[in-house]
Write a structure and sequence with these properties.
The protein has 328 residues and is an alpha+beta fold. It folds into 2 domains: 115 residues, Nuclear Transport Factor 2, Chain: A, CATH 3.10.450; 159 residues, no CATH class. The chain is built from 6 helices and 11 strands. The strands form 2 sheets. Strands 1, 2, 3, 4, 5 and 6 form a 6-stranded antiparallel beta sheet that branches. β3 and β4 form a beta hairpin. The longest helix has 21 residues. The radius of gyration is 21 Å and the shape is globular. Keywords: Signal.
Amino acid sequence: MSRLVPALALAGAALMGTAALAGCGTEKPAAAVGQPAVLSAAEAAEVVAGYDRANNEVNATLNAEALARIEAPPLRTTSEAWLRITKQQARSIPLITSNDPRFIVPSGTGHPRWFVATANRVQGGVPSPRPTYSVFTQQQPGAPWLVAYSLAPMEDAPAPALNGASAATAVTDVADLLVRPENLGQAIFDHYAKDLTGKDDFAKSTALDDQLANGFKVGRNVLRTKGRELTRTVSATELPRYALRTEDGGVLVFTASTVVDVIKASAPGGLVTFEPGTNEAALAGKTGAKAFAITRLHAFLTHIPTKASGAQVKVLAFADAPISISPR
Protein backbone atom coordinates (compact mmCIF):
# COMPACT_ATOMS: atom_id res chain seq x y z
CA MET A 1 0.00 0.00 0.00
CA SER A 2 2.19 2.82 -1.25
CA ARG A 3 0.79 6.16 -0.11
CA LEU A 4 1.09 9.28 -2.27
CA VAL A 5 3.00 12.28 -0.89
CA PRO A 6 4.76 15.20 -2.63
CA ALA A 7 8.44 14.88 -3.48
CA LEU A 8 11.29 16.75 -5.12
CA ALA A 9 13.51 15.18 -7.74
CA LEU A 10 17.17 14.41 -7.30
CA ALA A 11 18.93 17.54 -8.53
CA GLY A 12 20.83 16.93 -11.75
CA ALA A 13 20.67 13.15 -11.42
CA ALA A 14 21.63 11.29 -14.58
CA LEU A 15 18.95 8.65 -14.18
CA MET A 16 18.17 5.88 -16.63
CA GLY A 17 14.87 6.38 -18.44
CA THR A 18 12.59 3.61 -19.60
CA ALA A 19 13.93 3.82 -23.14
CA ALA A 20 17.59 3.46 -22.16
CA LEU A 21 19.30 0.22 -21.19
CA ALA A 22 21.96 0.24 -18.48
CA GLY A 23 25.40 -0.10 -19.99
CA CYS A 24 24.41 0.91 -23.53
CA GLY A 25 26.26 3.60 -25.45
CA THR A 26 29.68 4.11 -27.00
CA GLU A 27 31.97 1.18 -26.31
CA LYS A 28 34.81 1.85 -23.90
CA PRO A 29 37.48 -0.30 -22.34
CA ALA A 30 36.05 -2.41 -19.54
CA ALA A 31 38.10 -0.63 -16.88
CA ALA A 32 36.72 2.77 -17.95
CA VAL A 33 33.12 1.66 -18.32
CA GLY A 34 32.87 -0.08 -14.98
CA GLN A 35 30.66 -2.94 -13.87
CA PRO A 36 27.17 -2.87 -15.42
CA ALA A 37 23.93 -2.43 -13.50
CA VAL A 38 22.21 -5.46 -11.98
CA LEU A 39 19.31 -5.07 -14.42
CA SER A 40 18.34 -2.84 -17.33
CA ALA A 41 15.96 0.09 -17.25
CA ALA A 42 13.50 -1.90 -19.38
CA GLU A 43 13.53 -4.73 -16.86
CA ALA A 44 13.15 -2.27 -13.98
CA ALA A 45 10.18 -0.67 -15.73
CA GLU A 46 8.45 -4.07 -15.88
CA VAL A 47 9.06 -4.53 -12.16
CA VAL A 48 7.49 -1.15 -11.36
CA ALA A 49 4.47 -1.77 -13.60
CA GLY A 50 3.92 -5.17 -11.98
CA TYR A 51 4.04 -3.65 -8.52
CA ASP A 52 1.51 -0.96 -9.46
CA ARG A 53 -0.95 -3.59 -10.69
CA ALA A 54 -0.57 -5.78 -7.62
CA ASN A 55 -0.58 -2.83 -5.21
CA ASN A 56 -3.89 -1.56 -6.60
CA GLU A 57 -5.38 -5.04 -6.22
CA VAL A 58 -4.27 -5.15 -2.57
CA ASN A 59 -5.62 -1.66 -1.93
CA ALA A 60 -8.97 -2.44 -3.57
CA THR A 61 -9.53 -5.48 -1.34
CA LEU A 62 -7.68 -4.15 1.76
CA ASN A 63 -6.03 -7.57 1.86
CA ALA A 64 -3.08 -7.19 4.23
CA GLU A 65 -2.03 -10.83 3.79
CA ALA A 66 -1.30 -10.20 0.10
CA LEU A 67 1.27 -7.54 0.96
CA ALA A 68 3.91 -10.22 1.52
CA ARG A 69 3.90 -10.84 -2.26
CA ILE A 70 4.74 -7.23 -3.16
CA GLU A 71 6.42 -5.51 -0.21
CA ALA A 72 9.17 -6.12 2.34
CA PRO A 73 9.84 -4.47 5.70
CA PRO A 74 9.91 -1.73 6.67
CA LEU A 75 7.32 -0.61 4.07
CA ARG A 76 5.24 -3.76 4.48
CA THR A 77 4.99 -3.12 8.22
CA THR A 78 3.54 0.35 7.70
CA SER A 79 1.31 -0.79 4.83
CA GLU A 80 -0.25 -3.48 7.04
CA ALA A 81 -1.05 -0.83 9.63
CA TRP A 82 -2.49 1.57 7.06
CA LEU A 83 -4.73 -1.17 5.67
CA ARG A 84 -6.06 -1.95 9.15
CA ILE A 85 -6.70 1.75 9.74
CA THR A 86 -8.37 2.21 6.35
CA LYS A 87 -10.64 -0.79 6.91
CA GLN A 88 -11.58 0.35 10.42
CA GLN A 89 -12.42 3.83 9.13
CA ALA A 90 -14.51 2.35 6.30
CA ARG A 91 -12.55 4.24 3.66
CA SER A 92 -11.26 3.21 0.24
CA ILE A 93 -7.92 3.79 -1.49
CA PRO A 94 -7.95 5.46 -4.92
CA LEU A 95 -6.09 3.95 -7.86
CA ILE A 96 -2.34 4.67 -7.81
CA THR A 97 -0.11 4.69 -10.89
CA SER A 98 3.55 5.54 -11.55
CA ASN A 99 4.24 7.86 -14.48
CA ASP A 100 7.58 8.62 -16.15
CA PRO A 101 9.56 6.08 -14.10
CA ARG A 102 13.34 6.48 -13.93
CA PHE A 103 15.88 4.29 -12.23
CA ILE A 104 19.05 4.34 -10.15
CA VAL A 105 20.43 0.82 -10.46
CA PRO A 106 23.57 -0.30 -8.61
CA SER A 107 26.25 -2.31 -10.33
CA GLY A 108 27.14 -5.82 -9.27
CA THR A 109 26.36 -9.49 -9.70
CA GLY A 110 24.53 -12.03 -7.63
CA HIS A 111 21.87 -11.63 -4.97
CA PRO A 112 20.38 -10.00 -3.05
CA ARG A 113 20.05 -7.10 -5.50
CA TRP A 114 18.10 -3.86 -5.45
CA PHE A 115 17.43 -0.61 -7.26
CA VAL A 116 15.68 2.73 -6.74
CA ALA A 117 12.78 3.84 -8.94
CA THR A 118 11.56 7.43 -9.09
CA ALA A 119 8.15 8.18 -10.56
CA ASN A 120 5.47 10.84 -10.66
CA ARG A 121 2.67 9.22 -8.71
CA VAL A 122 -0.98 9.73 -9.66
CA GLN A 123 -3.58 8.83 -7.02
CA GLY A 124 -7.26 9.06 -7.78
CA GLY A 125 -6.44 11.11 -10.89
CA VAL A 126 -4.43 13.67 -8.91
CA PRO A 127 -0.74 13.84 -9.92
CA SER A 128 1.99 14.46 -7.37
CA PRO A 129 4.09 17.58 -8.03
CA ARG A 130 7.38 15.68 -7.71
CA PRO A 131 8.64 12.07 -7.90
CA THR A 132 8.44 9.48 -5.16
CA TYR A 133 11.48 7.25 -4.52
CA SER A 134 10.96 3.51 -4.04
CA VAL A 135 13.50 0.80 -3.22
CA PHE A 136 12.85 -2.55 -4.95
CA THR A 137 14.65 -5.63 -3.64
CA GLN A 138 15.10 -9.22 -4.81
CA GLN A 139 16.63 -11.71 -2.39
CA GLN A 140 17.41 -14.61 -4.76
CA PRO A 141 17.02 -15.61 -8.44
CA GLY A 142 13.39 -16.07 -9.36
CA ALA A 143 12.13 -14.44 -6.17
CA PRO A 144 9.60 -11.61 -6.49
CA TRP A 145 10.75 -8.01 -6.45
CA LEU A 146 9.49 -6.39 -3.26
CA VAL A 147 9.27 -2.70 -2.34
CA ALA A 148 11.07 -1.94 0.93
CA TYR A 149 10.84 1.87 0.98
CA SER A 150 8.65 4.50 -0.65
CA LEU A 151 9.49 8.07 0.30
CA ALA A 152 8.92 11.57 -1.03
CA PRO A 153 11.90 13.95 -0.65
CA MET A 154 10.94 17.48 0.32
CA GLU A 155 14.22 19.00 -0.90
CA ASP A 156 16.73 18.44 -3.69
CA ALA A 157 19.37 15.78 -3.07
CA PRO A 158 22.88 15.35 -4.46
CA ALA A 159 23.02 13.35 -7.67
CA PRO A 160 24.01 9.68 -7.48
CA ALA A 161 27.48 8.78 -8.74
CA LEU A 162 27.26 6.74 -11.95
CA ASN A 163 30.02 4.80 -13.67
CA GLY A 164 30.59 4.56 -17.42
CA ALA A 165 27.93 1.86 -17.64
CA SER A 166 25.31 4.17 -16.09
CA ALA A 167 25.35 2.06 -12.93
CA ALA A 168 25.27 3.44 -9.41
CA THR A 169 27.36 2.28 -6.46
CA ALA A 170 25.75 0.52 -3.52
CA VAL A 171 27.62 1.51 -0.37
CA THR A 172 28.59 -0.98 2.34
CA ASP A 173 31.76 0.65 3.71
CA VAL A 174 30.61 3.66 5.72
CA ALA A 175 33.78 4.42 7.67
CA ASP A 176 34.26 7.72 5.81
CA LEU A 177 30.79 9.08 6.60
CA LEU A 178 30.00 11.80 9.11
CA VAL A 179 27.28 9.64 10.71
CA ARG A 180 26.95 5.90 10.34
CA PRO A 181 23.58 4.96 8.76
CA GLU A 182 22.76 2.52 11.57
CA ASN A 183 23.04 5.39 14.06
CA LEU A 184 20.67 7.73 12.23
CA GLY A 185 17.54 6.77 14.17
CA GLN A 186 19.04 7.70 17.52
CA ALA A 187 20.87 10.75 16.14
CA ILE A 188 17.69 12.11 14.56
CA PHE A 189 15.73 11.54 17.77
CA ASP A 190 18.39 13.34 19.80
CA HIS A 191 18.26 16.25 17.34
CA TYR A 192 14.59 17.04 17.91
CA ALA A 193 14.02 15.66 21.41
CA LYS A 194 17.02 17.49 22.86
CA ASP A 195 16.57 20.61 20.69
CA LEU A 196 20.03 20.33 19.10
CA THR A 197 19.30 22.45 16.02
CA GLY A 198 22.52 24.27 15.14
CA LYS A 199 24.46 22.23 17.71
CA ASP A 200 24.87 18.85 16.02
CA ASP A 201 25.75 17.33 12.62
CA PHE A 202 22.33 17.97 11.02
CA ALA A 203 21.53 20.78 8.62
CA LYS A 204 18.09 22.36 8.95
CA SER A 205 15.61 20.69 6.63
CA THR A 206 11.88 20.66 5.97
CA ALA A 207 11.53 16.96 6.73
CA LEU A 208 13.51 16.96 9.97
CA ASP A 209 12.79 20.35 11.51
CA ASP A 210 9.47 21.47 10.06
CA GLN A 211 7.76 18.08 9.88
CA LEU A 212 9.23 15.76 12.49
CA ALA A 213 10.61 18.13 15.14
CA ASN A 214 7.75 20.62 15.06
CA GLY A 215 5.16 17.85 14.86
CA PHE A 216 6.61 16.18 17.94
CA LYS A 217 6.70 19.42 19.93
CA VAL A 218 3.18 20.47 18.93
CA GLY A 219 1.78 17.03 19.62
CA ARG A 220 3.36 16.87 23.06
CA ASN A 221 2.09 20.34 23.95
CA VAL A 222 -1.45 19.52 22.79
CA LEU A 223 -1.44 16.40 24.93
CA ARG A 224 -0.34 18.44 27.95
CA THR A 225 -3.34 20.73 27.54
CA LYS A 226 -5.52 17.62 27.70
CA GLY A 227 -3.88 16.38 30.88
CA ARG A 228 -1.63 13.78 29.27
CA GLU A 229 2.09 13.18 29.22
CA LEU A 230 4.10 11.84 26.28
CA THR A 231 7.40 9.99 26.64
CA ARG A 232 9.22 8.74 23.52
CA THR A 233 12.07 6.23 23.30
CA VAL A 234 13.92 4.81 20.29
CA SER A 235 14.01 1.06 19.75
CA ALA A 236 17.30 -0.68 18.98
CA THR A 237 15.60 -2.91 16.41
CA GLU A 238 17.70 -3.31 13.25
CA LEU A 239 15.79 -2.60 10.02
CA PRO A 240 17.05 -2.96 6.42
CA ARG A 241 19.08 -0.05 5.03
CA TYR A 242 20.03 0.87 1.46
CA ALA A 243 22.73 3.37 0.53
CA LEU A 244 23.98 4.82 -2.77
CA ARG A 245 27.16 6.81 -3.33
CA THR A 246 26.56 10.39 -4.49
CA GLU A 247 28.69 12.56 -6.79
CA ASP A 248 29.91 14.62 -3.84
CA GLY A 249 31.36 11.50 -2.18
CA GLY A 250 28.63 11.10 0.41
CA VAL A 251 25.71 8.70 0.37
CA LEU A 252 21.97 8.82 -0.18
CA VAL A 253 20.57 6.36 2.35
CA PHE A 254 17.16 4.85 3.11
CA THR A 255 16.77 3.96 6.80
CA ALA A 256 14.00 3.29 9.27
CA SER A 257 13.63 3.09 13.03
CA THR A 258 10.86 2.41 15.49
CA VAL A 259 9.94 4.61 18.42
CA VAL A 260 7.63 3.87 21.32
CA ASP A 261 5.38 6.65 22.58
CA VAL A 262 3.94 6.14 26.05
CA ILE A 263 0.96 8.41 26.70
CA LYS A 264 -0.39 8.51 30.22
CA ALA A 265 -2.86 10.62 32.15
CA SER A 266 -1.25 13.34 34.27
CA ALA A 267 -3.88 13.23 37.02
CA PRO A 268 -4.18 10.18 39.30
CA GLY A 269 -7.01 7.94 38.15
CA GLY A 270 -7.24 9.64 34.75
CA LEU A 271 -7.85 7.68 31.55
CA VAL A 272 -6.34 8.08 28.10
CA THR A 273 -8.59 7.77 25.05
CA PHE A 274 -8.09 8.71 21.41
CA GLU A 275 -10.15 11.14 19.37
CA PRO A 276 -12.65 9.37 17.07
CA GLY A 277 -11.54 9.31 13.46
CA THR A 278 -7.81 9.42 14.22
CA ASN A 279 -5.40 6.74 13.06
CA GLU A 280 -4.60 5.88 16.65
CA ALA A 281 -8.27 5.44 17.51
CA ALA A 282 -8.65 3.05 14.58
CA LEU A 283 -5.84 0.87 15.94
CA ALA A 284 -6.75 1.12 19.64
CA GLY A 285 -10.52 0.94 19.42
CA LYS A 286 -12.78 2.65 21.98
CA THR A 287 -10.96 1.30 25.02
CA GLY A 288 -9.60 3.74 27.57
CA ALA A 289 -6.59 3.02 29.78
CA LYS A 290 -4.33 4.70 32.31
CA ALA A 291 -1.65 4.68 29.62
CA PHE A 292 -1.04 3.50 26.08
CA ALA A 293 2.15 2.44 24.33
CA ILE A 294 2.15 3.38 20.64
CA THR A 295 4.83 1.86 18.44
CA ARG A 296 5.54 4.06 15.43
CA LEU A 297 7.73 3.34 12.43
CA HIS A 298 9.76 6.24 11.08
CA ALA A 299 11.34 6.00 7.62
CA PHE A 300 13.93 8.44 6.31
CA LEU A 301 15.76 9.36 3.13
CA THR A 302 18.96 11.13 4.16
CA HIS A 303 22.10 12.53 2.57
CA ILE A 304 25.15 11.81 4.71
CA PRO A 305 28.36 13.61 3.66
CA THR A 306 31.88 12.38 4.31
CA LYS A 307 33.74 13.48 7.42
CA ALA A 308 36.26 15.35 5.28
CA SER A 309 33.66 17.35 3.32
CA GLY A 310 32.79 19.81 6.06
CA ALA A 311 29.10 19.43 5.10
CA GLN A 312 26.22 18.45 7.37
CA VAL A 313 23.74 15.58 7.29
CA LYS A 314 20.41 16.49 5.68
CA VAL A 315 17.19 14.54 6.15
CA LEU A 316 15.33 14.83 2.84
CA ALA A 317 12.21 12.76 3.52
CA PHE A 318 10.34 11.53 6.58
CA ALA A 319 7.37 9.20 6.88
CA ASP A 320 5.55 8.21 10.06
CA ALA A 321 3.04 5.48 10.78
CA PRO A 322 1.54 4.07 13.99
CA ILE A 323 1.93 0.30 13.68
CA SER A 324 0.61 -1.00 17.00
CA ILE A 325 -1.06 0.25 20.19
CA SER A 326 -1.43 -1.51 23.51
CA PRO A 327 -2.74 -0.42 26.94
CA ARG A 328 -0.30 -0.11 29.82
